[in-house]
Amino acid sequence: MNDTLFDRLFRDGTGEIVMSQPPNLPILIWGAATLLKLFFKTGQIKIALDLLAFSSLLYWSFLEITQGANYFRRDLGIVVLIALIISVIERLDRTPTLNQATSP
User: Contact 55/80 with Cβ under 8 angstroms?
Assistant: First the structure.
């Protein structure tokens, strides 16, 4: 079989073109938590929703990287994972340290 770059990127093991699929549970959880964060802007519920949204998207990216139907889906998982890592680094940069929080 003469595979082209397009075939390797977008076809699954059965030869079907797969770019999207119905949302799976981690994406549904991420979407619900993200929508709920519009109503809970502060407090412990917002923190819990942040954690739920982040962890479900992290799990989704892991599933795509390890079990994606084709290279496009696996690459999409890698891009989302990189974006999640960058978001954590940016949050850590904005978080004051103990010394900054107690200094006058």
Answer: no
d(CA 43, CA 49): 10
| Total domain count, the chain | 1
Q: Which residues contact 31 (CB under 8 A, 6 or more apart)?
A: 23
Confidence of residue 31 (pLDDT cuts 50, 70, 90): very high
pLDDT per residue over 68-77, tens digit each? 989 999 999 9
78: in domain: yes
Chain position carrying tokens 């619900």: 32
Q: Is 41 within a domain?
A: no
**Mean pLDDT rounded to a whole number for the chain:** 89
| Domain span holding position 54 | 49-93
Say which amino acid occupies 10: F
